[in-house]
Specification:
It is a single chain. The protein has 288 residues and is an alpha/beta fold. It folds into two domains: 85 residues, Leucine Dehydrogenase, chain A, domain 1 (Rossmann fold), CATH 3.40.50; 123 residues, NAD(P)-binding Rossmann-like Domain (Rossmann fold, 3-Layer(aba) Sandwich), CATH 3.40.50.720. It has ten helices and eleven strands. The strands form three sheets. The chain has a six-stranded parallel β-sheet with strand order 1-11-8-7-5-6. The protein is globular. The chain starts with a strand and ends with a helix. The protein binds guanine. The site of guanine (GUN) has 8 residues, from strand 4 and helix 6.
Length: 288
């Protein structure tokens, strides 16, 4: 048996066509969705990520602003920029690219973003809303994983999902989303003994660690769904995930590739969150 591949590029293209149509409608009504992206310092990976985010906005009719600041920017100056964008009616979403330089308190910056502009879903108000099942922005990467499961018509109710990784950006919100969809959820992490014992019982495995070769074929139950959030380089410098794709695809029922899996879905969900923020702003002014 060879696993079906869940194609993140194809699913993104479908969802993004809808983004373009909705952005055009909002623009006609004077609410062109706007995203501000703040980059501090010159981390090369972050520079690529923010370029891709801004380009996706341009490609789908959203307004975008990219602010690049030197690594020496003070925390007070960054806070002032966030506050100015909170008050800017042309901006519906604010994204501060992480990681920030060590002299800046990341959580203080995130908490300064107005929750209704928190399209990354990292604010404590967004995290609390997800935790309690209230409306709010969901972090883009785990939300993209949920959309991929939805795209194959997968019924999570009563299934056993194993999430590997416990970050605030992926692992923890992923577990909460799966729980909200009525899965039984296990969270594994670096201190979990015998990872394979857990993964072998899973109907769904989400790998979000950032370590090549983490999940091997003999750790997977036949027919299970394997979602790979990892972004690593192999010995030849080629992009790869956490999952041994060639081995696991012979056992799993569904698998996401890297590249072309979760990666494009993350940006797609950012566009959707920004659109939702603009829609809410239009509704608040009685025009949607
Ligand atoms: N750094 C790595 N992933 C992300 C993300 O999804 N959002 C932000 N703001 N920074 C990141």
């Amino acid at each position: 048996m060879t696993a079906h591949i869940i194609d993140g590029n194809a699913l993104s293209a479908q969802l993004r066509a809808d983004v373009s149509a909705r952005a055009a409608l909002l623009t006609e009504r004077g609410f062109k969705p706007g995203l501000a992206v703040l980059l501090v310092g010159d981390d090369p990976a972050s520079a690529v990520y923010v370029r891709n985010k801004v380009k996706a906005c341009q490609d789908h009719g959203l307004h975008s602003v990219l602010e690049r600041h030197p690594a020496t920017l003070s925390e007070a100056s960054l806070l002032a920029r966030v506050q100015a964008l909170n008050a800017d009616p042309a901006i519906h979403g604010i994204l501060v690219q992480l990681p920030l330089p060590a002299h800046i308190d990341t959580q203080r910056i995130i908490e300064a973003i107005a929750p209704h502009k928190d399209v990354d879903g990292f604010h404590v108000a967004s995290a609390g809303a997800l935790m309690t099942g209230l409306p709010g922005f969901w972090p883009c990467t785990p939300h993209g994983c949920m959309k991929m499961l939805e795209s194959i018509g997968y019924e999570l109710r009563g299934k056993h999902a194993v999430v590997i990784g416990r970050s605030n950006i992926v692992g923890k919100p992923m577990a909460l989303m799966l729980l909200q969809a009525h899965a039984t959820v296990t969270i594994c992490h670096s201190a979990t003994p015998n990872l394979a014992h857990h993964t072998r019982q899973a109907d769904v495995i989400v790998c979000a660690v950032g370590r090549r070769g983490l999940l091997l074929a003999d750790m997977v139950k036949p027919g299970s769904v394997v979602i790979d959030v990892g972004m690593n380089r192999d010995q030849a410098g080629k992009l790869c995930g956490d999952v041994d794709f060639e081995g696991v695809r012979l056992v799993a029922g569904y698998i996401t590739p890297v590249p072309g899996g979760v990666g494009p879905m993350t940006i797609t969900m950012l566009l959707i969150n920004t659109l939702e923020a603009a829609q809410a702003s239009a509704a608040a002014e009685g025009q949607a």
